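Hello Y.,

Per our agreement to keep a running log of every chain we model this quarter, I'm adding this entry. I've kept the format consistent with earlier entries: sequence first, then predicted structure.
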Amino acid sequence: MKVQQALKGDRLMKGVTGMSVSEFQELVKKFGKKPEKRKRITI
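Predicted structure for the entry above:
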């Protein structure tokens, strides 16, 4: 169930931002921000 939700979220993320959640997390890592911050920007 959680895997399906994650995939759904990934597709939604890709639709909204043009990149998947994992790609976004990589960006976050590059900029040295904490992944928790991502939760604030999700729709």
